[in-house]
Amino acid sequence: ATPTALLVGTGRGAQLGILIKGPEVLESTRRVDTVVLDKTGTVTEGRMSVVDVVVEEGTDAAELVRLAGATEHASEHPIARAIAAFGRVVPELVEGPSAQAPWVPDASTGSAAQGWVPVEGFQNIEGRGVTGIVDGHAVLVGRHSLLEDWSIHPSPALLAAKAAAESAGQTAVLVAWDGASRGLIVVADQVKATSAEAVASFRALGLTPVLLTGDNEAAARHIAAQVGIDEVIAEVLPAEKVAVVHRLQAEGRVVAMVGDGVNDAPALAQADLGMAMGTGTDAAIEASDITLVRGDLRAASDAIRLSRRTLGTIK
Ligand code: ADP
Ligand code: MG
């Protein structure tokens, strides 16, 4: 490989919105056979919004949104942002329970919210949910397993609603307080318009796409099917993403990983080729060999095609 040809390759990359850390990156890019894709923020937009609220018998939906919103307000997670933003459009949810249950967001309801009731003892449980005390209630918002740890059991009807949302590709988080299951909040994200085309380009290059996520299996499968991915690794805790990349490498695969989150950084560093969404976190960008400036997944296949072409002209 002559340095000049490699530099021409990296220069062309910059024009395509692909920032390559150094010419040596192109060499590992060429050998890649598997592309691991983070789901939220990489394949999907990563901007979640609340689409439904389901309550256990006897629970007021407005009260559920109020307590869950006050707890999630302290978190930066996309699910938390969706729930906090949802409560904010209906001021009475923030200030106190209302007579009706206005869980359909309506930005026209008037004045901005005064702010959430403060949460005490807030705890973020990585990849599982959040807890805190709001108005004297011990609130939990998160996965089923988080509630189980506290011996809280959602009703069969609530779990059925959860399963239905998940099989439609949505994410349902359970809400409990004072030791009882109270309901759930369904959030949805959108697949990026360019993701399916990007996956098709990976396949055209002979690469196997794999979807990796902390989200539930059913939602992950639904999103995977929408973009043309067969291999799904779901319900992976943030700290375990790196081990998944390591395991694929141990199977003899040469792995490219594309991600955007702080959680993805160790996996991006472990991959033979790490690619970060330019729209993502600094941690992901720093851990990566390549930055896809516009956050468009098609740039990931462009990068691999470019490096093959560049090195191909050299050999
Ligand atoms: P992803 O890999 O899609 O970014 P995470 O690993 O961050 O997902 O989270 C995995 C799952 O943990 C979520 O789908 C959700 O069920 C639960 N979870 C994580 N953070 C929160 C939160 N702040 N509120 C509610 N649930 C959460
Ligand atoms: Mg992500």
CATH fold annotation of the largest domain:
Rossmann fold
| Average pLDDT over all residues | 87
Radius of gyration: 22 Å
Estimate the strand proportion: 15-25%
Helix coverage percent: 40-55%
CATH architectural designation of the largest domain: 3-Layer(aba) Sandwich
Task: Find the structural class using helix and strand composition.
Answer: alpha/beta
User: Helical stretch count?
Assistant: 14
Secondary structure tally: strands: 13
Neighbour order of strands in the largest sheet:
1-13-12-11-2-9-10
The number of domains is 2
Uncertain residue ranges = 94-114
Q: In angstroms, what separates the terminal alpha carbons?
A: 7 Å
Write out the CATH superfamily name of the largest domain: HAD superfamily/HAD-like
**Biggest β-sheet description:** 7 strands, mixed
* Approximate shape: elongated
* SSE sequence, one letter per element: HEHEHEHHHEEEHHEEHEHEHEHEHEH
Would you give an account of this structure?
The chain has 315 residues and is α/β, with parallel strands linked by helices. The protein has two domains: 3-45 and 191-312, Rossmann fold (3-Layer(aba) Sandwich); 49-188, Calcium-transporting ATPase, cytoplasmic domain N, CATH 3.40.1110.10. It contains 14 helices and 13 strands. The chain has helices at residues 3-15, 25-31, 39-43, 61-72, 78-88, 91-95, 144-149, 156-167, 195-204, 217-227, 241-250, 265-270, 282-287, 298-312, and strands at residues 18-20, 34-38, 49-55, 119-125, 129-134, 137-142, 171-177, 180-188, 208-212, 231-233, 255-259, 273-277, 290-292. A hairpin with a 2-residue loop joins strand 5 and strand 6 (137-142). Helix 4 crosses helix 5. The longest helix is centred in the C-terminal third of the chain and has 15 residues, at 298-312. Adenosine-5'-diphosphate is lined by residues 39-40, 72, 75, 77, 79-80, 127-130, 141-143, 171, 173, 213-215, 238, 261.
